[in-house]
Each structure stands twice: as C-alpha cells, then as structure tokens.
TrEMBL record, chains A, B:
Family to which this protein belongs: Belongs to the ABC transporter superfamily.
Superkingdom assignment: Bacteria
InterPro entries assigned to the protein according to its UniProt record, in alphabetical order: AAA+_ATPase, ABC_transporter-like_ATP-bd, ABC_transporter-like_CS, ABC_transporter_ATP-bind, P-loop_NTPase
GO MF entry, a single one: ATP binding
A Pfam entry, by short name: ABC_tran
Keywords: ATP-binding, Nucleotide-binding, Transport
PANTHER family in the record: ALIPHATIC SULFONATES IMPORT ATP-BINDING PROTEIN SSUB, TAURINE IMPORT ATP-BINDING PROTEIN-RELATED
Record protein name field: ABC transporter ATP-binding protein
Positions of the ABC transporter domain: 19-246
Organism: Agaricicola taiwanensis
CDD domains: ABC_NrtD_SsuB_transporters
From TrEMBL, chains D, E:
Region of interest: Disordered: 1-22
Protein name: ABC transporter permease
Transmembrane segments: 28-49, 89-111, 123-143, 149-168, 245-266
CDD domains linked: TM_PBP2
GO biological process: transmembrane transport
Family membership: Belongs to the binding-protein-dependent transport system permease family.
Gene3D superfamilies found in the cross-reference section: MetI-like
Gene responsible for this protein: ssuC
GO cellular component, one term: plasma membrane
Keywords: Cell membrane, Membrane, Transmembrane, Transmembrane helix, Transport
Organism domain of life: Bacteria
Amino acid sequence: MHAPTGSVDAGAGLRRPAIDFRDASVRFGDFTAMGPVNLTVERGEFLVIVGPSGCGKSTLLNLVAGTLQPFTGETIFNGAPVEGLNPAVGYITQKNYCLPWLTVEGNVRLPLEFRRFPKAQVASLAASALERVGLRGFEKAYPRQLSGGMLQRVMIARTLVYEPDIYLMDEPFGSLDALLRTKMHDEILHLWKDTDATFVFVTHDLAEAVTLADRVVVMSGRPGQVKLTLDIDLPRPRDVVDIQSNPRFGGYIKTLWEALDLN
Amino acid sequence: MHAPTGSVDAGAGLRRPAIDFRDASVRFGDFTAMGPVNLTVERGEFLVIVGPSGCGKSTLLNLVAGTLQPFTGETIFNGAPVEGLNPAVGYITQKNYCLPWLTVEGNVRLPLEFRRFPKAQVASLAASALERVGLRGFEKAYPRQLSGGMLQRVMIARTLVYEPDIYLMDEPFGSLDALLRTKMHDEILHLWKDTDATFVFVTHDLAEAVTLADRVVVMSGRPGQVKLTLDIDLPRPRDVVDIQSNPRFGGYIKTLWEALDLN
Amino acid sequence: ETVPLKVVIGSNSFAYGGMRVAEHAGILEKNGIKAEIVVAESGNAATTALISGSAEVAASGPEQVIAAAARGQKIVILGNLYRGLSGSLVLSEPIAKKMTVKRDAPVVERLRALDGLTIATPSATSAYTVPLKTFAEMNDVKINFTYMAQSAMPAALKTGAINGMMAGSPYTDAGVLASGGTLWIDGTGGELPEEVEPTSSTVLQTTEEFAKTNPDVVKRLIKSLEDLKEMIAQDPDGVKAAMSKAYPKLDKSTIDSVFERNSANWAQPEYTMAQIQKELGFVKTQGRIQGADKIVPESLLYSNP
Amino acid sequence: MSMNTAAVNSRKATGAHEGRAPTQRKSWAVPLGLQQLLVFVSLLATWQITSLYFSLDFWISSPVAVYQEFIRWYASGTLLNDLRMTLTAAGSGFVIGSIGGAIIGFLLGWIRKLGDLLEPLILSLYSLPKVALAPLFVLWFGIGITNKIMFAAIIVFFMVFFTTFQGTRQVDRDMITNARLLGASKFQTWTRIAIPYSSIWVITGLRIGLPYALIGAIVGEFVAANAGVGYRIKEATSYFNTSGVFAGLIMLMLISFTLLGILKLIEKRVLYWQTAEVALGEDASKHIP
Amino acid sequence: MSMNTAAVNSRKATGAHEGRAPTQRKSWAVPLGLQQLLVFVSLLATWQITSLYFSLDFWISSPVAVYQEFIRWYASGTLLNDLRMTLTAAGSGFVIGSIGGAIIGFLLGWIRKLGDLLEPLILSLYSLPKVALAPLFVLWFGIGITNKIMFAAIIVFFMVFFTTFQGTRQVDRDMITNARLLGASKFQTWTRIAIPYSSIWVITGLRIGLPYALIGAIVGEFVAANAGVGYRIKEATSYFNTSGVFAGLIMLMLISFTLLGILKLIEKRVLYWQTAEVALGEDASKHIP
Ligand SMILES: Nc1ncnc2c1ncn2[C@@H]1O[C@H](COP(=O)(O)OP(=O)(O)OP(=O)(O)O)[C@@H](O)[C@H]1O
Ligand SMILES: Nc1ncnc2c1ncn2[C@@H]1O[C@H](COP(=O)(O)OP(=O)(O)OP(=O)(O)O)[C@@H](O)[C@H]1O
Ligand SMILES: [Mg+2]
Ligand SMILES: [Mg+2]
C-alpha cells in the first residue's frame, strides 16, 4: 500500500490514504476503551464518525493526533505510523483549551505565532477567522467572559485560522444554536471545497452527519469498533438547508439510527 | 401577584408562580448581557428556552440560582426575590463541576451527603441515579477517566439524585448520542410526570425543545429578551419517538426556526 | 604614606576596646595605618575571616590561634590587646539574696557557694567558661553549665532560667542593671587565681604569610599598641574622649567606670613565649583541641626578622 | 419587600458565571486601607500601654522610645548609609537568588525526569540550616559584601526554587499537548504556556523569598560588618538598647513592606487577566452574529 | 518500518486524554533510585577528589574525614542523645507551627476580607529576622526546650501559612458556588471542597516548612543549649573543625530527608486521585449502556 518512493507523490492518481487505522486498539489498564479498528480515510474525504457516548470516538481522534498510542496495531498517517504528537492535524478537541490569560484574539493568533506566519498576515487572518465564527467585537474579551457556545467558536477559529490539511473535529458545534450551526456547516463545506482538506468529524447529530459527510462510520458500543460504513451519495456542492429535503436524506438518517439502535 | 399570606400555600388552585422575572437585566461593566426580561414560570411547568449563542440563556438561569444579581429588576422565586445563592434549585450547569478527587459515585453522593440524607438511603439513591444515566460499572472511575458525554451524565445524575422541586438544565444533553438522548428524554419526562417538578431547560435542539416543553421561549440576540412564547399543545404523556410524527410537531419546529432566523 | 588595613574584631565588647581607642584616638593613623574595623559575630568568626583572606588582621582570644594552628593554619600573634580575663560572673537577684557567703569573702568561698547552681556561659570552649570550670573542678564544686548567646543572658537571668551568668562587659553590666543581679566574681579585676586565669582575652593576629610579606605594616601595628599603652598612662582624658567616640551610646559616668576597670588590661601589649606556653598548657590538659600537642609554640608568635 | 431594600441587600455576586462581577446598582465599600490602619494603630497603642503599665521598657521598648531612636539614628547621618549597605546586599542577593531559583525550579519542574533525579539533592541542600553555614560562608566568601549577597541569595534561591518547582509540576499537561498540536515548539510551550501558567507560583515564591533576602543580608551583617541595618541591630543588642533593636527591626519591616508592595503591583500586571475589566461594551454589542 | 521498531519507539503517551496513561506493549524503565544513587556517589567522589587534589581539607573537609568524625561522634555516645534533643524540639515545633500555619493560612485565605485586613500584619512579622529576636524569646520562653520548640514553630508557621494562604485563595470560587447549590453548608464547602482543593498547597507548605523546623531547633540550640546537633555544630565551628561541622549538617540532612520521605508517602495518599489506577476493567465492560 506504500507508494513506491518515499517522497510525497504529487499525482492525484497515485494518492495514498490520509489516515489508515490498522487493527488499532486502546487500553487503559485492563480496560479496552476502543477497537480494534480498521479504517482508511482517503485524502480529501469528509468522514463523519457517530457512535454511542463513551465508545471511543475521541480516543480514535487522539490516535491520529498522536496524543495516545495504540495498544495493538498502528495508525498510519500520510504513509508513516504516528509516533509522538502530530502537529500536521488541526484538532478541535471536545474539551476547551483556551488559554485564560489571552484574549479571544490572542488565542486565535496563537497558532499563527507558533507557526511563524508573517507578522503582516497574522492580524488579518485572525480577524477573518473570528468573523467567520461570528465573534467580531469580542476580540478583546477574555475566555471567562464568554458563553459556552462562544468558547467553542474560539476553539474553531483557532484551528481554521492556520488552514491545516487535515481537520479532526470532536463535536465542534455541540453548543451552537441551530442557526449558527447551519452557518457553520455552510462555512465548513465551503472550506472543504476550496481547500481540498481532509475532515474527520465526530458528532451525535445524525442530520449534521449526513449533511456534511462523504461517508459516515458508525461505531459500536464500548469497546468501539467499526460497525457500519455508509457512503452518502448526495450531490455536491450541497446547500445545507436544501439538502435536507433531498429524498435520500431521511433514508440515510434512518439507516444510521437503526445501526446505532442495535447497540 | 403576591399570595395573601406569607406562608406557602398548599392548595393547588392558589398557586403562585415558581419563578417570576420582572424587568430583570444583567450587565457586565457597560455591556448589557441580557434583558430586560419579563417572564413567569408556573409551578409544575416544563419551560424550554432557546436562543442564539451568547444571548444570555445561561445568565437567565444564573439569576434563578442566585449566582448573579440583576442590574435592573428582580427575580422572584417562590414569592420572594432571589438574594444570594438559591440551593432550592437543582442546577445542571453548562460547565462541568465534577470534583476531580472524588469517584463518579462520590460525586453523585455529594449532594445527598450535603443534604444529610439518611446513610441507608445514600448508596441506593446514588446507584439508581447512575443506573438511570447509564453509568453503571463506572462508580469507581475518576472524572478524568471519562469521556465528554459520560462526564455530562455524572452532572445529570448528581442533580437527579436529590430530586429538587425545580430543575435548571443548561444544555444537559449536548454531548450525548441520539439514542442516549432519547432515553434521557424519556427519563426526564417520567420524572416530570411522577414528581410534578418545575423545569427550566435550555437547549439548541429545537426537536428536543418541542418534545419536552409545555412552552418554549425564544430569546432574541444579545442582549437577550423574550421574543416569542410558544405553547406546545401536544398530548401528554408523550412518547419521545412517536411524538415526532405528530402532525403539529413539524409546525412548531418551523415556527421556532423562523423566530430564531429573524434575529 | 598610609596603608589601608582591614581589621576584624570579635565583638563590640570592651575586650576589644583597646583597638577601638587606638582607632578613634588617631594612634593607628599616626603610625600610617588607615584601618577599617569590622565587627564579627565572635572571636572565632574574626579568626575565620582572617583565614579566608578577607581581612589582613584579626583580634580574638589566643585559643582561636591555637585551634587554627591545630588545623594547620599558620597564624601569628602580634601582641596582646587585653590582659587576663575580660569577663565576670553575675548572680541573679534572688540567688544573691539567699547567699550566706558575703561578697567580700575570699574568692574560693564565693566559688564554693556556687555549688549546684546553673550558670550560663557563651559556650563550652569560651574563654569565660574554661577558667571558671577549671577553678570549680580544682575545688570539687559542681556547677551546671549551660551555654547561650551573651545577649540572651540578662533575659534568662531575669526570668530565673539561670542562676548566674559568666560573660563580658557590657553584658554583665546589663545583667546587673536590668535584672537586679549582683557582680559575684570580678574577672576583669583579676579575682580569679593566677593558675586558672588566662594570659589574655584578645590578641592581635595575622597570617604568617602576611607578616612575612609586610614586615613594615606589622611593625607599625606593634608600634601602635605601644603608643596606646603610653597614651593610657599619659593622657587618660584623651583615651576617654576616644572611648566616647567609639561607644557613642555610653554616658560619661559609664565611660569612667569602664576606663577604670579595663584600661590597665589594655596596656599590656607584650605577648611572651611563656604566656603562649601557659595557654597551650591549658588546652592540652583539657584535651579540648585535637592535635594541639603537635603545635610548635614558637610558630605562634611573631618574631621580628 | 421594596425594591430599595432589595438593592441594598444585593451582594456582590459570586457565581458559576463569575470572573467578571456583574454591575450592581449600588456599592458600599469600606476602604481597606483605613481598616488596616486601624489595626495598626491599635497594635501600637497596646504595645505602648503594655510597656508603660508593666514597666517592660527594657525588654520590649515602646513605640515612643523607638521613634526617638529613629530620630537619633537619622540625625547621626548613618541611617541612609546603613540602608544603602543592607539594601545593596539584600537586593543583589534577591535578584541572584530569585532568578536562579525561578529558572532552576522551572527547569526541574518542567523536565520531569531531571526533576525526579535531582530533587533529593536539592532537598538536602535546602535542609541545611543556613545559619550554621555562616562560619563556612565566612571561610568561603570572606566578610565583605559578597558574603552577605551570597547569604541572601542562597536563602532566596531555595524559597523561589521550591514554589516554582511545585507550581511548574502542576502545569496542565493537556494544555501543553494541545499547544504542541497547534504548532508550538518545545520552547514556545515554555514561554507561551508553562511560564504564564506557573507565574502565580513564581510570584508566591518571590513573596516568600523577598523578606528572606533582607533576613539573609542581616544575618550576614550579624556575622561580620561595620555598617548596615543588621550591624546597628547587633550594636544595639550589645548595649541592651532594646529601642535600637526595635528601630532596626521596624526599619526592616518597612523595607520589606515597600518591596512587597512593589511586587504586588507587578503581580497585578502579570496576572491582570484574572481581574481585567475589558470593555466589551459598545463594540461587541454592535456585531451581533 | 517493522512493527517491532514501532513498539520500541512508542513513547508513554501524554495527551488531551491523558490522566491515566494508556497501556503500552512494552516498557523500558530505568530505576530512578539507581540513577539517584549514581548522582549521589559521583558527587561524593567529586568532593573527595577535589578536597584531596587541591588540599582543601581545611575548607571543605572530605567525605572520608566526615565519616571518621561521625564514627567519633557515635563512639563518644553523645550522638543519640543529641539526636533525641534536636528531634524532640524540631518535631514538636513542626507540629505546632504547621497546624497553626495551615489553619490560620486556610482561614485568612478563605475569608477574603479577614485575609486582606491582616495580610500586612502577618507579612511584617514574617519579615522579622527571628535570630534578632533571640533575647526576647529567652525572656518569653526561657532557655529550656520550649525556647527551641517555639523557634522551630514560628519559622514553620510562616512557611506553611504562606503557601496555604496563597493556595486557598486560588480555590475555584465557581466550584464552591456549585457545591453551595448542591446543598453544601459553609462548613461543608470547607471540608469537602476547599480543603481537598488546597491540600496540594498545604503539602507544599509542609514540605517547605519541614526542614525549617530543624533549622529552627538548631538556631534555638545556637542561642542556648548544652547538647543537640546544633550545639555540636557550634562546638565544631569554634575549633575550626570543618569535618565536624559537615558531620552535623549531614546529620540534619539525613533527618529531614527521612521526614520528607514520610511526608511524600502521606502526599501520595492524600493526592491519590491524581494518579490512581482504578480498575474500571471487567466490571465496566459488562454494563454497556
Ligand atoms: N484517561 C483515561 N483513563 C481511563 N479510561 C479512559 C480515559 N480516557 C477515556 N477513557 C475511557 O475510554 C472510553 C472511550 O472514551 P472516549 O472519550 O473516546 O469516548 P467518546 O466516544 O468520545 O465519548 P463521548 O461521545 O461521550 O465523548 C470511555 O469509556 C472512557 O471511560
Ligand atoms: N463573567 C462575564 N463577564 C463578562 N461578560 C460575560 C460574563 N459572562 C457572560 N458574559 C457575556 O454575557 C453574554 C451572555 O452569556 P450567556 O452565557 O448567558 O450566553 P448563553 O445564551 O448561555 O450562550 P450559549 O448558548 O453560547 O451558552 C455573552 O455575550 C457573554 O459574553
Ligand atoms: Mg468524546
Ligand atoms: Mg450558555
């Protein structure tokens, strides 16, 4: 499955998968939290993962980010096993990691400063990211002055701002209202179209899953394994409101719902 | 609007409202975060609040819990203004406040111990609360060993366990999967029916709102004010799955969606 | 021309008073020495400072020189700063009142009256302890010695934690004044018998190295001590004037009494081979300092090349 | 209950949404400084009265006597010189000790393996009574200002080291991991996360250490000196001038007080985000998403 | 890359989901104790060699000389007596000082107004060099063991007080508010939230304070004693017996070492939840919700 040479191949035809879980499982003590999982995420794919609470979805993302190491198997990222942290991914975690001593803007600039973006760009990139998540006017606020949903949006802006090739998103829109969520879906789909980035997206919202995904993976209950892989064959580009009235939309949701229900 | 005597009246006919916001508004510095709000929550009512992120929903609940004091107006609780903390409410906050040095069980027992429940009852009450949120088997785990959804369930169990008269719930099911969420809806509706408690429930999920509510309040954008009050005239007791196919269900959702969209 | 010189002394007590008078009366300056006098925490610290090389000259008891020599440090004595014992024994008020022996009785009887009492001294090895202890042992008198900082003694005397204190002036004066104590054995007045009394309380000292390389400075120092002796004999008022400059906190009458009690002891600059041998003898009989028997007495005394 | 009483009763809210206290209708602040002054004055009064009433002047002096001693000290012209000496030693010692303590404490706290390895060693050194080292210090560093600086530095070093060490160990590792994923280099996780995170502990260390810089300088002056506040105290002790001793001690208290005040200002600046009242106001209200 | 190398390379994960490290396939642990021993031995060797090579025996003694001094000390029969004296004073002082410091630090940290009011007062007292107070201590507590105990107690008090004070001020007020809503009385928020929360600070305070208990006892012995480790050190000092001074100091180090070890065990027990490996295992897997 490896490319014949070690170099990154430019041709679209010869692309190797972005992520490849091979028999990966995670244990804490004697407790198997996830797996074994076998799953391939293609480059440029929008993959959504759903599954019962505590089945190991966050754990799966952690394997890709390299914040956990598997007990068995391995996680192949861009052709090489993940060892140690993997800053090539943009990870929007479930837990909030805003730095309390930085303003909203400071938090969003952080990755740009870390990645040594040219000074001139930093301010405008940060401003546009904040604009996109609807936080203009709150640049100078500190995290403790924000509502739950606003904090979540700071986390999103902080990842969007540096445009990684691969996004790992762990329930990123959980505390957003329906309207804002729709806006964010739109935003994300545009981003995906414009940049050709790969997305691995965890959610509990099946409509969200179907709206966004190329493919939805349903995980089984603890220890989470891949139970069902469902290709979402809906037209692109999608309009996040109109797509819901597509005749196949309801069917996909039903399939997913049933797969979950059997747990 | 006050009851003629200061004593708590027993007769159901003479009931005064559980909560009454009178021109209540909250400011942080010069920034008006919420209000002014005028809203009455009747005793035994199931009120759901929806509104855009950052409009002041959590702030509204904080007024009832007494963790914030209004800048103008007042919050009348059981006939008297809320001054200082109000432990008569059961408050499931948006932020997680599990104590990291207690096990899941220890965290759930905490309010019982605080409220001096008889020793004999404590263990069985805690066990049944954990059972209800699907956390059996995790009694001895520490918070840092749990997934996001599991932590949220600990917070829920910790409030259910002492059966307060009034529940304030701030997006309690945000990180639960669809199935578990449905189970929790069922659980909550049974609780409500059995105990005749009052619920003030904040959510972003309009289906959830319509499924549970007697009445849904839509708040406007910052500073949040009551924009629409919608009585949900669906039969009780409700089956949380069947209710969605009620012909009026979709209509309510549409009304709410439109009210939100106009923001 | 004048040479700058750092001189470290062991305390603010009058045992080092000669040095201060020599400084404030201009004797050192007259001999071409621009002295900076530093006060250390104890005689031991003064000698330590000398060894460390941060002062050229130190003043402390001869036993410090012996102890340092026993550890291989080459220090030589240039001259005597205070003859005999500079400390005295003060009894607390209630004990003194109970005494059947009179203050003017022979010193041996006064010593016997101390049997069983608790007496504070600065340390087990202090120049104040050894004579009294030796004297008591010679006469089969049992004294409970306890060791404490001199500054703490008057307070202990007042609260009754100790029955008496063996210390130097001005601590003894404070013991008398503040706690209503009685001066029981006057060490400065030479009341202790010759065979237990130390030869000297403080001597002027420097390293062998410094003495060798700076014979001229040493000569000036020795000359200063002789000038001091002469001044005490010739010009007591000048000495008192220098004292009030050195101890600005003391009033006229105190200066007078301090002068009367101590000036004679300041005026004995010669330190002889015999005196060294006597000190070494004390040290050896008590076996306090390991390796003291290996010391060559001659090496301790500065000899004019 | 009328609206008026409600307003009076309403307390400054603390709450699940605290951080920035909500604006209240009225506020009844009793100036803290005044209260502190009251405590201070009543203590002085108690001191004076006890001293007079039980005639303990010789032992505990009295405020009036101490004041007179101050005047004398100042008039004699040595006060400023003494202050300069002591402050130089304490200041240099503090700077050396706290920089060393903060850096090494930070490094050992941060690099866990190294910390585990060297902790016992540092603990041993910490356990040494510095006063007992005084003679050795004289031997090693002489009796000049170096001795006093080293004394102050070593004491401060340990104070700052320990709190920084402990604090840095508490830094949320998940926060660090997250920053690494955001692209932070190891060095950046230090400067941007770990240092701000443990700054509260470093400051605690500095607060604990600061008075000890003075104490170190003073003890150094006790051992050997011819000027300085410590020397004055020793001199006063030798002549049983209790008022002088207290004058010296109070001088020290005043100095560390001033310095601690300055430190508090720095603390406020460094930890400004804990209390900042940032104007969301106008601007934020305009851009409703 | 073969699976084998991958396994060898895989590091102990730290991560957004850390807390309990995931189980690894293999683990290569180098025993820490051994490493520490190595550091210790090489330090001793350096000391010995430096001392021999540069003939610095008088200045820094040497391990062999110190060892001989220990033997002499033990043979003379005073060692145990000295130890008993010093330990009694330090131990009692530690207990009194740390209980006092923890309680008062906790109270003033917790009751903010009181803390703000009294902080300057306590800071002033803290700034006093205790050694300069020796005569007053003799006046108040005599020259017996009480004096040494009080010396130790007062120094420990301040150390524990300060860290506890600072730590308690850091307690998450929102957490407290939440507990109050859950029905906690004021007292319960102390016992169930604030105390566990600030326990890490209290323990830091104890760790910082413990060696100071010994230091306090030693200083007390310097001021007045006729036995005890401090007294031996002073005695050795007056004979320029550097080996004796080091023997005394090392004795002290050994003592505080042992005591700190015990404290560490207690710390592990109190803060067990930070590292606990609780068996979810079997039981949890059975009840899939
Ligand atoms: N540090 C840890 N120590 C022990 N067990 C852990 C740890 N982290 C996670 N687990 C366990 O691993 C399992 C999977 O956790 P994970 O966070 O991946 O779930 P999830 O699918 O993301 O759930 P949710 O939807 O609730 O976020 C859970 O049962 C959890 O208890
Ligand atoms: N401590 C505070 N200091 C300053 N502003 C605050 C503070 N707490 C909340 N706010 C502001 O008050 C507004 C309302 O916050 P609140 O948490 O009530 O929103 P919310 O409706 O619960 O939003 P969400 O759905 O995102 O949780 C927000 O704009 C927020 O920035
Ligand atoms: Mg998760
Ligand atoms: Mg909210």
